[in-house]
Amino acid sequence: QVQFVVSGGGLVQPGGSLRLSCVVSRSDFSRLGINWYRQRPGEQHEWVTSIGSANNTHYLNSVKGRFTISRDNAKNTVYLQMNSLKPEDTAVYYCKTGFLGPWGQGTQVTVSS
Protein backbone atom coordinates (compact mmCIF):
# COMPACT_ATOMS: atom_id res chain seq x y z
CA GLN A 1 0.00 0.00 0.00
CA VAL A 2 1.27 3.46 -0.91
CA GLN A 3 1.86 5.59 2.18
CA PHE A 4 2.95 8.80 0.50
CA VAL A 5 1.17 10.35 -2.46
CA VAL A 6 3.08 13.28 -3.88
CA SER A 7 1.77 15.82 -6.35
CA GLY A 8 2.31 19.36 -7.56
CA GLY A 9 5.38 19.07 -9.73
CA GLY A 10 5.68 20.62 -13.14
CA LEU A 11 7.70 22.76 -15.50
CA VAL A 12 8.46 26.31 -14.41
CA GLN A 13 10.84 29.05 -15.48
CA PRO A 14 13.70 30.17 -13.26
CA GLY A 15 12.34 32.38 -10.51
CA GLY A 16 8.99 30.67 -10.57
CA SER A 17 7.16 28.84 -7.81
CA LEU A 18 5.55 25.49 -7.16
CA ARG A 19 3.83 23.95 -4.17
CA LEU A 20 4.23 20.24 -3.66
CA SER A 21 1.79 18.23 -1.59
CA CYS A 22 2.29 14.91 0.15
CA VAL A 23 -0.71 13.04 1.51
CA VAL A 24 0.37 10.50 4.12
CA SER A 25 -1.86 7.49 4.70
CA ARG A 26 -0.86 6.76 8.28
CA SER A 27 -3.02 7.17 11.35
CA ASP A 28 -0.03 8.34 13.39
CA PHE A 29 0.77 11.15 10.96
CA SER A 30 0.69 13.88 13.61
CA ARG A 31 3.49 12.13 15.52
CA LEU A 32 5.73 11.65 12.51
CA GLY A 33 8.65 13.63 11.30
CA ILE A 34 8.46 14.01 7.53
CA ASN A 35 11.28 14.67 5.10
CA TRP A 36 11.44 15.87 1.54
CA TYR A 37 14.19 14.40 -0.61
CA ARG A 38 15.11 14.95 -4.22
CA GLN A 39 17.06 13.19 -6.90
CA ARG A 40 18.69 15.31 -9.55
CA PRO A 41 19.38 13.75 -12.94
CA GLY A 42 22.28 11.33 -12.68
CA GLU A 43 22.75 11.94 -8.95
CA GLN A 44 21.91 10.20 -5.70
CA HIS A 45 18.95 11.07 -3.53
CA GLU A 46 19.58 13.99 -1.24
CA TRP A 47 17.74 15.34 1.76
CA VAL A 48 16.11 18.72 1.25
CA THR A 49 14.02 19.61 4.30
CA SER A 50 12.20 18.13 7.27
CA ILE A 51 9.42 18.96 9.67
CA GLY A 52 8.95 17.36 13.06
CA SER A 53 5.89 16.62 15.10
CA ALA A 54 6.37 19.91 16.94
CA ASN A 55 6.65 21.83 13.64
CA ASN A 56 10.39 22.18 14.00
CA THR A 57 11.98 22.52 10.58
CA HIS A 58 15.37 22.11 8.95
CA TYR A 59 16.57 22.94 5.47
CA LEU A 60 19.36 22.16 3.10
CA ASN A 61 21.46 25.31 2.93
CA SER A 62 20.92 25.78 -0.78
CA VAL A 63 17.14 26.03 -0.35
CA LYS A 64 17.02 28.18 2.79
CA GLY A 65 14.97 31.30 2.23
CA ARG A 66 13.39 29.84 -0.89
CA PHE A 67 11.62 26.67 0.26
CA THR A 68 9.16 26.34 3.11
CA ILE A 69 7.95 23.07 4.57
CA SER A 70 4.68 22.92 6.48
CA ARG A 71 2.12 20.41 7.62
CA ASP A 72 -1.62 20.19 8.14
CA ASN A 73 -2.31 17.39 10.56
CA ALA A 74 -6.06 17.58 9.97
CA LYS A 75 -5.43 16.70 6.33
CA ASN A 76 -2.52 14.30 6.84
CA THR A 77 -0.61 16.46 4.39
CA VAL A 78 2.86 17.95 4.19
CA TYR A 79 3.58 20.80 1.81
CA LEU A 80 6.71 22.12 0.20
CA GLN A 81 6.40 25.68 -1.05
CA MET A 82 9.18 26.28 -3.55
CA ASN A 83 9.90 29.88 -4.52
CA SER A 84 12.64 31.51 -6.56
CA LEU A 85 13.28 28.22 -8.28
CA LYS A 86 16.61 27.65 -9.96
CA PRO A 87 17.63 25.21 -12.69
CA GLU A 88 19.62 23.25 -10.11
CA ASP A 89 16.35 22.52 -8.28
CA THR A 90 15.35 20.30 -11.18
CA ALA A 91 14.78 16.85 -9.71
CA VAL A 92 12.25 14.26 -8.73
CA TYR A 93 10.96 15.15 -5.28
CA TYR A 94 9.91 12.57 -2.71
CA CYS A 95 8.16 12.72 0.63
CA LYS A 96 9.15 10.14 3.26
CA THR A 97 9.60 9.58 6.97
CA GLY A 98 13.25 8.69 6.40
CA PHE A 99 15.83 7.69 3.87
CA LEU A 100 15.19 3.96 4.14
CA GLY A 101 12.29 2.25 2.47
CA PRO A 102 10.72 2.53 -0.96
CA TRP A 103 10.91 5.87 -2.71
CA GLY A 104 7.67 5.66 -4.61
CA GLN A 105 7.01 7.67 -7.73
CA GLY A 106 7.75 11.17 -6.51
CA THR A 107 6.91 14.22 -8.58
CA GLN A 108 9.03 15.80 -11.28
CA VAL A 109 10.09 19.42 -10.89
CA THR A 110 11.75 20.96 -13.92
CA VAL A 111 13.11 24.50 -13.84
CA SER A 112 14.07 25.68 -17.28
CA SER A 113 13.71 28.61 -19.63
Topology:
Layout: E1 4-7, E2 10-12, E3 18-24, E4 34-39, E5 45-51, E6 57-59, E7 67-72, E8 77-82, E9 91-96, E10 107-111
Parallel strand pairs: 2-10
Antiparallel strand pairs: 1-3, 3-8, 4-5, 4-9, 5-6, 7-8, 9-10
What does this structure look like?
With 113 residues, the chain is an all-beta fold. It has no helices and 10 strands. It has strands at residues 4-7, 10-12, 18-24, 34-39, 45-51, 57-59, 67-72, 77-82, 91-96, 107-111. Strands 2-10-9-4-5-6 form a 6-stranded mixed beta sheet, with no helix packed on it. It is globular. It starts with a strand and ends with a strand.
Mean pLDDT: 96
Strand order of the largest sheet: 2-10-9-4-5-6
Helix/sheet category? mainly beta
User: Could you name the ranges where pLDDT drops below 50 across 5 or more consecutive residues?
Assistant: none
Percent strand equals over 45%
Query: What's the alpha carbon Rg, rounded to whole Å?
Result: 13 Å
The assembly state of the depicted protein chains is single chain
In short:
The protein has 113 residues and is an all-beta fold. Helices cover 0% and strands 47% of the residues.
Question: What brief labels describe this structure?
Answer:
six-stranded mixed β-sheet; mainly beta; 0% helix; four-stranded antiparallel β-sheet
